[in-house]
Design brief:
four-stranded mixed β-sheet; globular; Peroxisomal Thiolase, Chain A, domain 1; about 35% helix; alpha/beta; five-stranded mixed β-sheet; about 300 residues; 2 domains; 9 helices
Length: about 300
């Protein structure tokens, strides 16, 4: 479709395959599927949920679709809302959901990261069409005697918004004489790959260091580094700057590509089911991307 090759894509990004949502499917449906699997693993019922946070930038409905997921799950006791922070969405959602638990307002929270980016990719743009895929992942957060969110840091820089965006494209329309509006749709994803790479390699190690500072921990105490799965070169560079050995860096980028808010929970799900991540392990996770936004959360995994 574009002037590239499988070898070029693998060597530059680390991506070998991706998954695309069924054209008849929906963001709500894949989010609900991930949620059901997370609830089963946590051994709780949907009716036990107090809150559902859906991190996504590609909802079926611009007004949000967390409530649709709530209906699909039958989680009648839960309030639900969308959170939009692109590739940082899951980390921002993790921090947000944790605050409701810390204040004692809610005890059982479902956090979902889901995106169908194939809807918004320009498949003739080589700089983006080789990167993005579709997916959904979910975790259950529960109140505990000990607070397992050990430290976090979140950042935004809107001056670099143009580096990665999915912008509105409106056309001026006069509805009555002297009164004009804009109506339109959204343009496909555009990205300045060099700038995003430079931003990620510089800012992500800094925000991880800051979160570790708040947690009063060092990199040596991290059992697993789980980064947003954007590009294998970024993952390698960040781990290298932090002096974190490669065997502690979890990655499934080669099988899924960049799935935005879904990438971190997809990695967590696979690693837990493969029994790599065990109760008590310390995880540093960082999301970064459009906004530009980036953040890190240090937490302890538990059942």
């Amino acid at each position: 479709m574009v002037e590239t090759s499988d070898q070029w894509i693998r060597s530059r990004t680390g991506i070998c395959e991706r998954h695309l949502a069924n054209p008849q499917g929906s963001l709500s449906a894949i989010a609900a599927t991930a949620a059901q699997q997370a609830l089963a693993m946590a051994d709780i019922r949907a009716s036990d949920l107090d809150l559902i946070v859906l991190a996504t930038s590609t909802p079926d409905d611009l007004f949000g679709c967390a409530s649709q997921v709530q209906a699909l799950l039958g989680a009648s006791n839960a309030v639900a809302f969308d959170l939009t922070a692109a590739c940082s969405g899951f980390v921002f959602g993790l921090v947000t959901a944790s605050q409701f638990i810390r204040t004692g307002v809610y005890r059982n929270v479902l956090l979902i990261g889901a995106d169908i980016l194939s809807r918004w990719v320009d498949w003739s743009d080589r700089s983006t069409c080789v990167l993005f895929g579709d997916g959904a992942g979910a975790v259950v957060l529960q109140a505990n005697e000990s607070d397992r969110l050990l430290g976090f840091e979140m950042r935004s820089d809107g001056t670099q918004n143009s580096c990665l965006r999915l912008g509105y494209d409106g056309q001026v329309q006069e509805i009555v004489k002297g009164v004009t509006i804009t109506q339109g749709c959204y343009k496909p994803i555009t990205m300045n790959g060099k700038e995003v790479y430079r931003f990620a390699v510089q800012k992500v190690p800094e925000v991880i260091d800051k979160a570790l500072f708040w947690a009063n921990m060092t990199t040596d105490q991290i059992d697993w580094l789980v980064l947003h799965q954007a590009n294998q070169r970024i993952l390698d560079a960040v781990a290298g700057r932090l002096n974190i050995p490669t065997h502690k860096v979890l990655s499934n980028l080669s099988h899924y590509g960049n799935t935005s808010a879904a990438s971190i929970p997809l990695v967590l799900d696979e690693a837990v089911r493969q029994e790599k991540i065990k109760p008590g392990d310390i995880i540093a996770t960082s999301g970064f991307g459009a906004g530009l936004s980036w953040g890190c959360a240090i937490f302890q995994w538990g059942r």
